[in-house]
Write a structure and sequence with these properties.
Length: about 325
Amino acid sequence: MTVPHPMIALVTRQAEAEEQHWLETLRQAMPDETIVPVAAMSAEARAGADIAIVANPDPADLRLLPNLQWMHSLWAGVERLVLELADLQPKIVRLVDPRLGEAMAEAVLAWSLYLSRDMPAYAAQQRQGLWQPLPYRAARDTRVGILGMGALGMAAAGLLRKAGFQVNGWSRRPKDVDGITAFSGRDGLKQMLGQTDILVCLLPLTTETDGLVDQALLSMLPRGAGLINFARGRIVVTGDLVEALDAGQIGHAVLDVFETEPLAPESPLWSHQKITILPHISGPTNPETAAAIVAANIAAYRCSGTLPDLVDFARGY
């Protein structure tokens, strides 16, 4: 007779309907596992749970699981987990989903074209009733610099290259990327910024990247360069960006992430003519593919005790 596995705790701070959808999707992907929201588990079940599946969990809920061995995040970004669980430092597996990379790469390409083909200027001319063609700039004549060459940055760089853009990439450590000019370190960052027409931020939020894109960094870009932030809001110093936009140092910014989300209705960013605001939609998580990846990682653990690479709390991701 097969001994059933301990229950898996689902620990989230999502709205009830969203959590229920994830619960159903995860159960479909793992029919041999019993997945239960932590609030619905008995004290005995909580004591026996060795795995949790989490989405921005309340640390107090995780403390209800005294024998937790590791947790699987449903998100690729884990900076909130690293911050809130610093005292616990549990084993965390973050979501690495190729479909997420594809979605992010599509968004980077779409909004890079938006900037390179002067869509903000044409939108402004439409509001003025102005019929005025602007000079054409081909993708091959546009230099895109990517901050962060992890899985998302690599996927975005590949799609940009296929579209004809000149692509540079910057990472903390040196990388050899075929067909892409790679930079690293502080000197490499300054060098890349000087030859970037559109800067795309895909960095994780860490102590090193918090506030990285400030006045000093923005001043290293060619005048009129564009900025796309699809990473985390705190990486960009908002006041410095607005000043750079007002001064013409930055031509236009596409912002999908903010320090506080949703962006407050009274925020002056909404009405800034050189800012395009998106509601954190550049890299949506697909529940079906994410659940399949979580299921495969849990199955491997049940079979052999192996886990994918864990989050490094010192590094921040």
